[in-house]
Amino acid sequence: MKNKILLITLLTALITIFSSKAAFARCVSQYGGGETCYEGELRLDKVVKNPSSGTYVDNLYSSDPNFSADQDVWFRLTVKNTGSDNLINIQVKDNFPNYVFFVSGPGSWDNSNKTLTWTIDNLSPSESKDYEIQGRIVNEGSLPNDSGTYCVTNYGEAKKDNKIASDTSQLCITKKVLGITTMPKTGSNLILTIILLLIITFIISFINFRKFSKST
């Protein structure tokens, strides 16, 4: 009897632990891939500005407008208190991806690990705060040697004790191909003219050759 009571107690404790864990840790799927994860009373949303439309979106893929060397990149990070209690001293960090360097934003920048960190002093229930962060794509010489498109991911995280929220934003960089990729219109016309002249010259020469052969 005692063993049964002990077993029931242990099972109840395990169900309680896993239920509370599931209630605290939640992930929301993003359109096009990726997840926004948050625990308990804290939520973070990370977006990147579309370089063409100027609107903020969750992610930019290779089929979307791409960035190029020396172009500015804007991220927006939103931290929200989804609980019923005030949250104080929330630690926030933003990790920059490869080929993007920091220009401006809140807090302090650590160049060794490409991380921007700051503290939110207080966040009331249902209150959210937005932070804009400016980056810039490295110069052409600092991009990979081969031409093409490279997609990189920016990571943001907010933490208060055991409450953690995180989110990512992807962007893609296209390296310009040096040299002429398509022939100018005037160039193609010139080549066509030369070809026609060569054909006409050949025909005239052939006719003259036939006449000369008959006369002899």
Characterization of the model:
There is one protein chain. The protein is an alpha+beta fold and 216 residues long. It has a domain at 28-175: Immunoglobulin-like, CATH 2.60.40. 25% of the residues lie in helices and 43% in strands. It contains 2 helices and 12 strands. The strands form 2 sheets. The protein has a 7-stranded antiparallel sheet. A 5-stranded antiparallel sheet has the order 4-3-5-10-7, with no helix packed on it. A hairpin with a 4-residue loop joins strand 8 (108-110) and strand 9.
Features:
Immunoglobulin-like, rod-shaped, alpha+beta, 12 strands, seven-stranded antiparallel β-sheet, 2 helices, five-stranded antiparallel β-sheet, 216 residues
Summarize the structure in short.
With 216 residues, this protein is an alpha+beta fold. Helices cover 25% and strands 43% of the residues.
The CATH topology annotation of the domain at 28-175 reads as Immunoglobulin-like
Biggest sheet record: 7 strands, antiparallel
Assembly state here? single chain
Distance between the termini: 129 Å
Percent helix, as a range, is: 25-40%
SSE sequence, one letter per element: HEEEEEEEEEEEEH
The CATH first-level class of the domain at 28-175 comes to Mainly Beta
Count of discrete alpha- or pi-helical segments spanning 4 or more residues: 2
- By CATH, the architecture of the domain at 28-175 is named Sandwich
Number of distinct beta strands = 12
Low-confidence stretches: 13-25, 180-184
- So what's the overall shape? rod-shaped
Radius of gyration: 31 Å
